[in-house]
Automatic annotation (TrEMBL):
This is Chromosome partitioning protein ParA. Gene3D superfamilies: P-loop containing nucleotide triphosphate hydrolases (3.40.50.300). To B.subtilis soj. It comes from the Bacteria. The gene is parA. Residues 3-178 form the AAA domain. InterPro entries: AAA_dom, DNA_Partitioning_ATPase, P-loop_NTPase.
Length: 255
């Protein structure tokens, strides 16, 4: 089994989907076979790869509730080596079904095990809330990648997230580790962003990745074209940063 990485932060708007899609595409560019799982009912990762979320015949929902085998829900994308298990608003229906199930938080982990060693990496894009979908991702993951926007409340939000991680380690997944904290949407000209960046390093040390994702217009534009930044503008600062992130994670985790 390849490494399963959940991209999560309970705070919204920090670049989880941008990171999930572009990290997956960057790993694929390095000739890794990658599966991206969209665990967010908004389906933004799905749309970002040019797939119509409302046209999905089989999605994450069917896999979680046992109506479909995981291999039946996996789609090829236009990116070589990159595959997708998509989602849409129907996924919200999984919440009730999973809550009523004693082992509802382990459904994704059980499904992923059936893929055996088919992928070098599995990236899970989590919703911006601590719900059963996020718990499924954390229970299934080997590592956690936490995008952090360098703004005033960043450290406060991380404190709550660290408490969540500890609880998950104690109850669902004792082997879950933090693969890294990723500084996103960073503007080096902004003094507050630089101060928060330095505080992150001071508090979390080596857990903070060296790679920093800059605030980049091309990154924001790419999803509307149904492309990762590597297809949309390979020469942009955003593309260079995500290639660097993939390289750093490959070194850290032996993907």
């Amino acid at each position: 089994m390849g490494r399963v990485i959940a991209v999560a932060n309970q705070k919204g708007g920090v670049g989880k989907t941008t990171t999930s899609v572009n990290l997956a595409a960057a790993l694929a560019r390095f000739e890794k076979k990658v599966l991206l799982i969209d665990m967010d009912p908004q389906g933004n990762s799905t749309v970002s790869l040019g797939i119509e979320k409302d046209d999905l015949q089989t999605s994450v929902l069917e896999v979680l509730v046992g109506e479909s085998k995981i291999k039946e829900a996996i789609l090829e994308t236009h990116v070589e080596n990159l595959f997708l298990m998509g989602s849409n608003s129907d996924l919200t229906a999984a919440e009730v079904a999973l809550i009523d199930d004693d082992k509802g938080s382990l459904k994704l982990k059980k499904a992923i095990k059936k893929l055996k060693g088919e992928y070098d990496a599995i990236i899970i894009d989590c919703p911006p809330t601590l719900n059963m979908l996020t718990l499924n991702a954390l229970a299934a993951a080997d590592g956690l990648l936490v995008p952090v926007q360098c703004e005033y409340f960043a450290l406060e939000g991380l404190s709550a997230l660290m408490d969540t991680i500890q609880a998950v380690q104690q109850s669902l997944n004792s082997e879950l580790t933090i693969d890294g904290l990723l500084r996103t949407m960073h503007d080096r000209r902004n003094n507050l962003a630089n101060d928060v960046s330095n505080q992150l390093v001071e508090h979390f040390g080596m857990k903070v990745l060296q790679t920093i994702i800059p605030r980049n217009v091309r990154l924001a534009e790419a999803p509307s074209h149904g492309e990762s930044i590597l297809e949309y503008d390979i020469g942009s600062n955003g593309a260079v940063a995500y290639l660097a992130l993939a390289n750093e994670l490959m070194r850290r985790t032996q993907i």
